Amino acid sequence: MQNTVPFLDVLIVGAGISGIGCAYHLQSKCSDLTYSIIEARADLGGTWDLFKYPGIRSDSDLFTFGYDFKPWKEKKAIADGNSIKAYIEQTANENGIREKIRFLTRVVELNWQSDKQYWLVTLRSEETGHTEKVAARWVFNASGYYRYDKGYTPEFNGQSNFSGDIIHPQQWPENLEYEGKRVVVIGSGATAVTLVPSMAKAASHVTMLQRTPSYVLPVPTQDPIAKHLRPLVGDNLAFKAARRFNIAKQRWVYAFCQRFPNRARKIIRDLNAKMLPEGFPVDTHFNPPYNPWEQRLCAVPGGDLFKALSNGSASVVTDNIKNFTETGIQLESGEHIDTDIVVTATGLNLLPLGGLVPKIDGKAVSLPQCVTYKGMLLSGVPNFAIAVGYTSSSWTLKIGLLCEHFTRLLNHMKQHDYLQCTPIADPNMETQPLLNFGAGYIQRSIEQLPRQGTHFPWSMSWNYAEDVKIFRKGKVDDPALVFEKSLETKNTAEVAL
What is the full DSSP assignment across 377-436? Predict the structure, then answer.
């Protein structure tokens, strides 16, 4: 008797905000196609289910970070992690997507079968260790870009001498008691500026210890457009107006920083100075050596970080760590910081495609040798889509457009009876790093990522207005794409191995 395995049109890897968004678009625009979402964790939400540290929140407003098809109705524009997870859960539940998710199941192998034109996928149960195989015409990888099991922490001299707790935000203990204790948060990025004001509410004192300052921008807790329009036109229209305005604002701020970096630096510095006590050394602690938007700006709703620094519940120290001691941290300047708890908000470990290495007929694909097509397909790899968002604005703005384009591509293939789509790049094409982003976790692992070209459609676009034309309205047929019709397999519920 011939062995068979279940067959899907699309297998989505990851049930985070990108995976749920992709599922929605598939259901809405390719309703006749079958799909399943494979999620290694016990619940959906991805990042927003994983991170549990105090104050966890988005670093973009939810009017642009959220889905364009589901209005954000809460008052706060920069949302906490629980609210974002609830928003993703609502989306999944309202659209019947949760039933399509296989939790506690991990994709351990993806092997493209050239003779059969589908991916043979090996799945493993995280509960039992049992493995099984499914076949999928397409794979959409929405597994994120960093390691879920371990964050990045440099080795500090004498770290083992410290008698207190050393914690990375990615592995936050459930029952950590920091009330009335002294805390040092090492770092100056989005996580650090979130942790400090949140922990300062209960700790005896929190010190933000940074080697290099970041640009920190106070933002309103409520979106002013949505706040004023909601009573007049309702949630839906207010959301659309706020989303459109914030998309334009993000683009304008980024462009202004790129064109006038010195003026942008002064504006941010002046905003910081206004929110801090007179005489505060702003230039020491909030004047980075790089230009605005060479790394992401850190948004602080209502200026909560500056309030904590102003009322004395928190402080900031800009220095280098010499070594840990039994009671704290010795700095190169000679200063010693006494502390009970050290939080290493030192970044993430990049993990392209969630650690998956696609194979073609048993041969592993070398990601650094691939070039991205429109930032969503990989050269030489058939029927494989990836989710790469913006770095200069809300990550998910790009993901939404990408999902729309993906469904348009699938419908184009159905219309012409194509079963296979492979981007083919010129092997002599000039390439460059995929992401234009100076963050440490990106730069540490940039060589592990696919590359991008220097011209369309192989280059990454960072302009939402241009991407709307490309992804939502542009042609899906392209000379760079090689389409193939059926060799022998058909769309069925099962296929023979």
Answer: EETT-TTEEE----SSS-HHHHHHHHHHHHHHHHHHHHHTTEEEEEE---TT--EEES--
Using only C-alpha atoms, what is the Rg of the chain? Answer: 24
Burial classification of residue 63, based on how many CB atoms lie within 10 Å of its CB (0-12 exposed, 13-18 middle, 19 or more buried) = buried
Displacement of CA 379 from its chain's centroid (Å): 23
Rounded to whole angstroms, the Cα distance separating 148 from 170 reads: 8
Say what the pLDDT of residue 496 is: 62
* Tokens representing residue 490 in the block: 């058909």
Segment holding 37, helix H or strand E: strand 35-38
Residues 6+ apart with CB under 8 A from 463: 251
| AA identity, residue 160 | S
Q: What is the CATH number of domain 4-148+349-496?
A: 3.50.50.60
Residue 198: closest CA among 52, 65, 395, 322: 52
494-496 and 4-13 beta bridge pairing: antiparallel
Q: Judge whether residue 446 has pLDDT over 50.
A: yes
Do the Cβ atoms of 315 and 205 come closer than 8 Å?
A: yes
Of 295, 302, 250, 213, nearest to 60 by C-alpha is: 250
Contacts of 238 (CB under 8 A, 6+ apart): 71, 225, 226, 229, 230, 232
Token pair of 430 as six digits: 């000039």
Within 10 angstroms of residue 418's Cβ, the number of other Cβ atoms is 18
Q: Cα separation of 9 and 447, whole Å?
A: 32
Instruction: Assign domain 159-344 to its CATH superfamily.
Output: FAD/NAD(P)-binding domain (3.50.50.60)
pTM exceeds 0.90, yes or no:
yes
How far is Cα 301 from Cα 289, in angstroms, rounded to an integer?
Answer: 24
Q: Where do we find the tokens 């590359």?
A: 451
Give the integer Cα–Cα distance in Å for 427 and 369: 10
Distances (CA, A) of 198 to 151, 178, 273, 313, 480: 20, 11, 21, 10, 50
**497 — pLDDT class (breaks 50, 70, 90):** low
The torsion of the CA quartet 253, 257, 258, 260, rounded to 10 degrees, works out to 120
- Do 4-148+349-496 and 159-344 agree at the fold level? yes
pLDDT tens for each residue of 230-240 = 999 999 999 99
* H helices present in 275-326, as ranges: 282-285, 304-311
